[in-house]
Amino acid sequence: MQNGSLKEAGDGYRPPFDADEFRRLGHAMVDFIAEYQQSLGTGSLPVRSQASPGYLAPRLPGAAPEQPEGLPAILEDVQRHILPGMTHWQSPSFFAWFPANTSPPSLVADMLCSALGVIGFSWVSSPAATELEAIVLDWLGQLLRLPPSFLSPQGGTGVIQSTASEATLVALLSAKARAMEGRPEEDALKLCAYCSDQAHSSVRKACMVAGITRLRALPTSPEHLHALQPEAIEAAVQADLAEGLLPCFACATIGTTNSCAVDPLPAIGQLALRHSLWLHVDAAYAGTFGLLPELSSHFEGLELADSFDTNPHKGLLTNFDCSTMWFREGRARWARQALSLTPEYLRHHANDLDYKDLQVPLGRKFRALKLWFVMRMYGAEGLRAYLRNRLECQRVFEELLAADSRFLVAEGTAPRFGLVCFRLAGATRQQSEVVLEAVNASGTAFLVGTLMDGQHTIRMAIGSATVLPRHIREAWAAIQAAADEVLGPVATSNGAENGLAH
Questions:
Q1: pLDDT digits (tens, 9 = 90+) for 208-221
Q2: Which of 245, 276, 309, 310 has minimal Cβ neighbours within 10 Å of its Cβ?
Q3: Domains of the chain in sequence order
Q4: d(Cα 402, Cα 421) in Å, to the nearest integer?
């Protein structure tokens, strides 16, 4: 059989792709992927796509083919038309937003997941999918040194969500269910939630979806490295209580998107306890650094949280989507109260194990499989080595930055978790944006900017699965070259231009 053509037999239609054909397709695709991955970081592909809006439609036919086409023709079109429109997130020179890791163990596990084709909404739909998820969440929780109350032996509950945004929504719905128990429906209009002005936009979106109209996004300051201060929450809670409102939820962040700020969990946790606030800790990006004992101070006070989330698909070599969430002992009952819906056709003898009641959608992939593969094939030692390499790359970038007087670490930020926020000293916003665009247009690296305290700030987010110090130096050379064009070259004390030679 060629090109997926249909097979006809006396008893009618037969599927066109048999096991032998799949082997052939699989080998060809793995070869294509391996060659693509090998090309990343060689300079053959610009890191950020240089395509313009609407570039693709003129390149492709206006309708689907009537007759089957073969994989070689399709892959040729991928090479010619799709890759030019891709921003290469797996490039070692991708430093934008936060990373979206993948790895060979995760990819092969995802292939198996797709082949199994499980929609694991309930235990009975595939018992192994449910039970492996519980085991894997305990494994990862132990590696992250989560408080024992988050793990299953002590009544905690772990669940893999699609994204941290979904985890935040689930936590908020749980908080709402707890706060509304025994209250009239109209009291839902009085509920209040609290976060910092640096919290992810998903907190606001969760409030929109949950019908909570009173979200207090409390101001932060460079003086406290943009961490949420408990005094600000206390004042807001007291003001809301005085108005007869119902404070119910607070979101603290370990590693904010703008600058990796870390909110003080011990103090916020005690405040949440006093006011019966559900405390959700969003560590979508930075949480995986909990594997490193030397960074444990950032996670102190976590035992006071009601729920916690981090994304292995950002920082632990597991391809999207995989967002791991834990409920402290007894807290999952509120999520089930908010989200459980079991029509007759979904009833079975083990409904209390169903993950459908801890998430918004019904369907779910067998995500635990790829996380299980990653933890087994890297081992805890390999995962820690990967995280420490990112921190070493951060250290290299900090040294390069400090050696050029035209640049400085952004005031009110602290390099951590592989993120360095920096500015061009004395430059206007326009000059800073021109430098950033020149770097990205070169194709050598891809970074993004943000606004911190009204000033344009460039973010160097280090996290690719294959990044090494040499990629940092290559990106720095592109940054310096762009700055030379806009600001002029910097001179060292002996008059020589400052470059990479130091």
A1: 999 999 999 999 99
A2: 276
A3: 19-93 (1.20.1340.10), 94-117+367-502 (3.90.1150.170), 134-358 (3.40.640.10)
A4: 13
